[in-house]
């Protein structure tokens, strides 16, 4: 049984007074706490609130699968490595280059890792540049050209019905034709949230690269660059008519507007400190302006909201703050990192039934009800409700009105088999009672940390009949989804 992942604070109302006692239900278990209080004079609602919650459905989990990517050759250190084939981290490319030439390949990607000494069966995982390094190798006559890969990159493409588990791509080492190789592999959860340890049976075979089905873009981290934008920065030689505000020189932007009369305004990124090409500014080190022509020269207005020209590729989302890299010619461009591939797995949730207000119930008509002046709203007998209100000196209450007699345990909800309505009941100054129909009621359901289910059908919310307070009462309920920790 799933534990409640939160603490509920419940107000227990005693009698018709306004005194309140606070109780905590600590995380873990479905501890029962029924808090029934009566609404005091003039409150306008029927009864009190309960905080016990009943488990309706255990959380559903996905299935752990491995998704395979490319097979990369692994370069390892060698004491006899020729200098042209030696990588910056000491690994030797000679065996890799021989394999590329034998296959007729002119380009390839190579992996090196401190843990590669473990040989076949070793799994390399961790951040790039620490746990492993990647290099792109090109053969074009003479010495090979080697370019380090600085961001995590792979050819693993996860099926669309699977989710990332929080781990990136790992590299599983193996021997093929005497060459140490690394197979890209990513653990994913297919069909739902990541299952807990020990959940389900043995893991099914990995999902290969060539299996049919739609997939997410390859798992990777990419750099996203924005279009060049005008730069303004502090300058000691700034012309007085270009030092429009904030100690920033707008000379380059003014020249751009003067050269391009068709532009009504110009987007400008202002640097809060002097800069040179290659400097990277954080968002806090910049201000965004709109440069415009005025009656007497030019003016620069601050933007109320920052404007961005960054757009991550399809299937990717920004994973780092946006910063600005200064270019030559008083220009600047935004840049950020984006993660591509399968989205994170949704959190597991359990479905609970949360409870709220308790109110009296009207069940059909009874003989003698009209003679006592307790038949209201046509043919509904309010004797039980009126007696309940008199005994507790409640001047106004809400009530559930049913079309007949029903036992505790019955459920009343929209679209269900029982016809019902709600009523507001109150006592007149002369001691008689009156009622009006209502379209809704005060459910008073609280389920901190949980969300209301909106697609579970009509039975997911309504009233359940219970035996309480000396008779049959109606208690509001609602199905909610609660995160499982």
UniProtKB/TrEMBL annotation:
Sorted UniProt keywords: Membrane, Transmembrane, Transmembrane helix
Entry's transmembrane regions: 29-48
Protein's name according to its UniProt entry: Uncharacterized protein
Native source organism of the sequence: Caulobacter rhizosphaerae
């Amino acid at each position: 049984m799933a534990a409640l992942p939160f603490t509920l604070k419940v107000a227990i109302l005693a009698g018709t007074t306004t005194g309140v006692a606070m109780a905590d239900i600590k995380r873990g278990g479905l501890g029962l706490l029924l808090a029934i209080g009566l609404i005091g004079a003039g409150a306008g609602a029927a009864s009190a609130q309960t905080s016990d919650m009943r488990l309706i459905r255990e959380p559903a989990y996905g299935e752990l699968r491995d998704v395979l990517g490319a097979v990369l050759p692994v370069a390892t250190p060698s004491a006899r490595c020729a200098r042209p084939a030696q990588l910056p981290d000491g690994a030797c490319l000679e065996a890799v280059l021989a394999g590329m030439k034998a296959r007729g390949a002119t380009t390839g990607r190579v992996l090196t890792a401190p843990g590669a000494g473990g040989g076949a069966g070793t799994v390399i995982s961790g951040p790039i540049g620490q746990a492993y390094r990647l290099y792109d190798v090109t053969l074009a006559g003479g010495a090979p050209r080697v370019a380090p890969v600085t961001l995590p990159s792979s050819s693993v493409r996860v099926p669309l019905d699977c989710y990332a588990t929080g781990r990136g791509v790992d590299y599983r080492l193996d021997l093929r034709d005497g060459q140490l190789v690394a197979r890209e592999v990513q653990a994913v959860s297919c069909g739902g949230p990541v299952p807990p340890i020990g959940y389900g049976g043995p893991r099914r075979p990995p999902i290969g690269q060539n299996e049919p089905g739609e997939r997410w873009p390859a798992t990777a981290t990419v750099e996203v660059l924005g279009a060049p934008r005008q730069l303004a920065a502090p300058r000691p030689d700034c012309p007085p008519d270009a030092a429009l505000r904030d100690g920033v020189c707008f000379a380059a932007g003014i020249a751009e507007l003067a050269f391009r009369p068709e532009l009504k305004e110009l987007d400008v990124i202002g640097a809060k400190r002097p800069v040179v090409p290659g400097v990277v500014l954080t968002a806090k080190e910049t201000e965004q302006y709109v440069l415009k022509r005025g009656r007497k020269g030019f003016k620069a207005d601050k933007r109320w909201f920052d404007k961005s020209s960054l757009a991550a590729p399809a299937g990717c989302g920004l994973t780092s703050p946006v910063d600005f890299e200064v270019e030559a010619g008083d220009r600047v461009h935004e840049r950020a990192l984006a993660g591509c591939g399968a989205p994170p797995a949704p959190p597991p949730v359990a479905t609970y039934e949360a409870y709220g207000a308790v109110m009296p119930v009207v069940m059909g008509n009874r003989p003698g009800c009209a003679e006592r002046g307790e038949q209201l709203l046509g043919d509904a007998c309010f004797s039980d409700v009126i007696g309940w209100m008199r005994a507790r000196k409640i001047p106004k209450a809400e009530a559930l009105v049913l079309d007949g007699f029903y036992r505790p345990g019955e459920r009343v909800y929209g679209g269900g088999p029982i016809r019902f309505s709600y009523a507001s009941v109150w006592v007149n100054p002369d001691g008689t009672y009156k009622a009006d129909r209502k379209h809704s009621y005060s459910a008073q359901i609280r389920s901190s940390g949980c969300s209301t289910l909106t697609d579970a059908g009509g039975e997911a919310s309504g009233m359940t009949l219970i035996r309480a307070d000396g008779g049959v009462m109606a208690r509001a309920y609602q199905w909610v989804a609660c995160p499982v920790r």
